[in-house]
Amino acid sequence: MTYSHPKLLVAIDCLVFGYDLSEESLNILAFQRKVEPYAGDWSLIGSFINEGEDMSQAARRVLKQFTGLDDVFLEQLHVYGNADRDPGGHVLSILHWSLIKLDDLHKETAEKHGARWFPIDQMPELVLDHGDMVQLGMQKLVTNAKTRPLGFELLPEEFTLPQLKRLYDAIYGRQLDDRNFRKRMLSTELLEKLDKKDKSTSKKGAFLHKFNKEKYEELAEKGYLLDLDVK
Amino acid sequence: MTYSHPKLLVAIDCLVFGYDLSEESLNILAFQRKVEPYAGDWSLIGSFINEGEDMSQAARRVLKQFTGLDDVFLEQLHVYGNADRDPGGHVLSILHWSLIKLDDLHKETAEKHGARWFPIDQMPELVLDHGDMVQLGMQKLVTNAKTRPLGFELLPEEFTLPQLKRLYDAIYGRQLDDRNFRKRMLSTELLEKLDKKDKSTSKKGAFLHKFNKEKYEELAEKGYLLDLDVK
DNA sequence: CTAACAAGCGTTTTGATAACGTTTAAGACT
DNA sequence: AGTCTTAAACGTTATCAAAACGCTTGTTAG
Question: Does B8 contact A3 at a Cβ distance shorter than 8 Å?
């Protein structure tokens, strides 16, 4: 080690949004803190970063521990750096966020670790500044959903257009026009229609689609800007 | 201290954009690194965060030291958290960015500290991952300039519409249509026209304007979204 | 065979903006 | 004094995208 300077405790906290397709509800993962101060209070999932550990690796480690998941959407979001934000000591927290599709398996994995999924409108009080983190994450979800293909991270590989539409309803907190929504989505030419129907929500059934991520990323490289801001 | 866990070195680095109105050029502040490894190489300005010091305070401290400025646009931008990003040791860097108006005084203050202002298209090679930081900052400047009132941070209190237009030309890297630009800017009703003219660039002179920041922030609170994406 | 209903498709209206032309103010030049 | 020059300021039209809304289709349940 070349540098000589006091060091800091650095934590990563992770705001995980999980969409439950069967209930069509957007949820956030919280867990009961095990260390003092505030042991037993609800908080986001998190961990200190270890010496020599990449920050992104620490984030993946935490997410894996509480959800069992690898290879899902996981990005840094914001740094909380006030020296007095945690009465237990000067801890810098780097908030991350993750988007996953929720199923019963994840719910079990969570419970095993003292964690629970809460619908976004039924969050309990959170410890420290974790309430602010949730608020920021909700804002970012809404704004980013308009310009990035985040919706597909919250749904299974195959989904119907009505399902996708109701997901965006949940994110934006209002009813979109299904006809304009469909038109906009299809106009991107990023969805592949399959020859299968899902009949879980209607007699007629709705065609399943897949999001062509490769095509999107190729276009994005060339400067393509997605715009999913529909009324 | 309640927690027992290994700590990390945490630095803040600051990408400072300075707009020189007289030369109508956008610049970035770089300085010659004083510590090994890579002493003498160009880098962004930065510092380690001290024990008990707020991150934002550390950022302000660095900016003040190299520019003499307080109370200017300064925000966190991105965390660089790879354990091996610095061969001198595991140092987490929290990139910040700042936007200021450049004048001769700031150039002198910079030189006193071994720092220099470089036009954005004439940046030298930077140390470590600081080149990535500049690239990210440039991207963010372009995208954020479309939805936030960043331009006014780079200009003096009073400016003319042609000056503002040429600033955005520099940011976007292309010539905007002056008539559409003016219309869009005025349509926000966030500019106050003064009874003074600036004649530095024409015989006729151009009316000076002020940006009504209070009005903008009031509107922004209520959900107003600025849109300065003009052709 | 018909009722019910979500899914899917289509048309009209509206409004924003890109593209471009014209007028104005003031110093420079004769 | 009158004309020229030039950036600044103002205005108009054509184009296109999206908001608003109506209609048809496919399937099952009764």
Answer: no
| Predicted confidence (pLDDT) per residue in B170-206, tens digit | 999 999 999 999 999 999 999 999 999 999 999 999 9
Distance from CA of B152 to the nearest CA of A (A): 23
pLDDT digit string, tens, across residues A87-128: 999 999 999 999 999 988 888 888 888 899 999 999 999 999
For chain A, list the domains and their CATH numbers: 9-145 (3.90.79.10), 151-221 (1.10.10.10)
Query: Taking residues B23-40, what's their average pLDDT?
Result: 95
CA-CA distance, A39 to B142, in Å (whole number)? Answer: 44
Nearest to A50 among B3, B6, B76 (CB): B6
Contact present, A47 and A84 (Cβ < 8 Å): no
**Residue B174, CB, less than 7 Å from strand C?**
no
In chain B, count H helices and then E strands: 6, 10
pLDDT of residue B215 exceeding 70, the answer is: yes
Q: Do B9 and A10 touch (CB under 8 A)?
A: no
ipTM of the complex: 0.95
Residues 6+ apart with CB under 8 A from A128: A38, A43, A85, A86
Task: Show Cβ contacts of residue A139 under 8 Å, excluding neighbours closer than 6 positions.
Answer: none
| Three-state secondary-structure class, residue A222 | coil
Kind of pairing between the strands at B25-32 and A191-198: unpaired
